[in-house]
Amino acid sequence: MKLLKFTRPHALVIMLFFVFLIVTSAAIIYTTGQNIASVKSLALQSLYATAFSLSSSAEGLLREQSRISERELREILADRVVAYALITGRDGVIQFHTNPGLIGKSLEDPMLEKLLVSEKNVGRMITLQTGQSAYEYNYIFLNQDGTPRLFRLVLHTVIADLIVTKAHRMWWAVGIILFLLWGLAGLVWNILLRYLRVRDDFQRRENVAMIGQMTGVLAHEIRNALAGVRGYTQWVEEKMEDSDPRKTGITMALQGTERIESLVNELLLFSREEQYAIDSVDAVELIRMALSSMTPWEGNVEVHGEERVFVKADKEKLLRVMLNGIQNAVQAMGTEGDLHISLHKDGHWGYIEIRDTGPGIEESQLSCLFTPFYTTKTNGTGLGLVYSKKVVEGMGGRIGLSNRIDPTGAVLTICLLSVEE
């Protein structure tokens, strides 16, 4: 996968964007947690206030009368929020209980003595024997003779629990908000990546077009001058005797002009604006044509894959691309090796793969292979793969070159739209 290069301003904006997302998400989570904690605290304070109010009313009634008036106490404690209430002294005998059947029985509570001695009002959350949560409030007041008594009030927490439960539902809203926030961030990130890819592709195409224009002009000028040099050299060679020692130098000069002419032809091929005659092409037939046109080779050649694969392509240009790929593979392997050509379909795409068993490509060179004039060969021009990429993409396809893992070697993959026949 091609890595995108970020400019410093882009990198700074991206960093600030993600910092903003992280800080915003953390702030939303923290604020929600604090709000829920506040709701719990307020619910607990509400239970405490209710319990304190009822306990104070009961204490006022008990101070006014010398003995406990059950009827008036029951009227005070008639609120449905009250689970039960009781009054006991230091001896633990229950003097009053909202359940009359428990009056006179002993309260078995190891904390009773400690509560009476401390004379502090204490509230806590408990669980009733029914499994329901409740709020227990222990209120200490003094008799007329100065002895302490415990007024224990236990309240139902259904309403408070309902409020806390509704508060916890805020996490669902927070989750949806964070999901939308990060989803939007992902969308922005994809748009940014697409923009950078388009920018890089545009710059690459612009550079290739500029190089193409320049090389086209240079190639024409070089070819015109080369025609004169080659013609004069050939004329000189024809006038020389075979025994003349200078003829060897003239022959080498002619070979040099042929090499230059081949390079000029490649430059002209690379620089010209391509016109495509897109049609349905039988990839199997094209492979046979390419193999029959290749230079005789001592290695093994195998073709395997699906028997009928048709792709949308310009037949002549695709044949040239395949010949270039086969030639590169053979040159990488030398005089012997295994050349595997396979083809298959995957969805709407047809794939042609040319695999060799050569030494492969150095990792540092993989990213430069489709760069104009970059070559790993001593006599290469660095335009073969660039031309292949140009025409394959011009036909609406993709091309890539990578290393094989086992065995060693390289694989050239040509991907084009498939056609049903």
Distance between the termini: 32 Å
Extract low-pLDDT stretches. Answer: none
Summarize model confidence as the mean pLDDT. Answer: 81
Radius of gyration from CA coordinates: 45 Å
CATH topology-level fold name of the largest domain = Beta-Lactamase
CATH evolutionary superfamily of the largest domain: PAS domain
SSE succession: HHEEHEEEHHHEHEEHEEHHEE
Give a description of the structure.
This protein is an alpha+beta fold and 421 residues long. The protein folds into 3 domains: 10-168, 2-Layer Sandwich (Beta-Lactamase), CATH 3.30.450; 171-271; 279-419, Histidine kinase-like ATPase, C-terminal domain (Heat Shock Protein 90), CATH 3.30.565. It contains 10 helices and 12 strands. The strands form 2 sheets. Strands 6, 7, 8, 9, 10, 11 and 12 form a 7-stranded mixed beta sheet that branches. Strands 2-1-5-4-3 form a 5-stranded antiparallel beta sheet. A hairpin with a 5-residue loop joins strand 1 and strand 2. Helix 1 (8-64) runs antiparallel to helix 4 (158-168) and helix 1 packs antiparallel against helix 5 (170-239). The chain is rod-shaped and about 150 Å long. The two termini are 32 Å apart. The model has no long low-confidence stretch (mean pLDDT 81).
Structure keywords:
single chain, 421 residues, alpha+beta, Beta-Lactamase, Heat Shock Protein 90, 3 domains, seven-stranded mixed sheet, five-stranded antiparallel sheet, 10 helices, 12 strands, rod-shaped
Question: Helices and strands in order, then pairings?
Answer:
Layout: H1 8-64, H2 70-76, E1 82-88, E2 94-97, H3 112-118, E3 122-127, E4 133-142, E5 148-156, H4 158-168, H5 170-239, H6 246-271, E6 279-282, H7 283-293, E7 300-305, E8 310-313, H8 315-333, E9 338-346, E10 349-355, H9 363-366, H10 384-394, E11 398-403, E12 410-419
Parallel strand pairs: 7-9
Antiparallel strand pairs: 1-2, 1-5, 3-4, 4-5, 6-8, 8-12, 9-10, 10-12, 11-12
Helix pairs in contact: 1-4, 1-5, 5-6, 7-8, 8-10
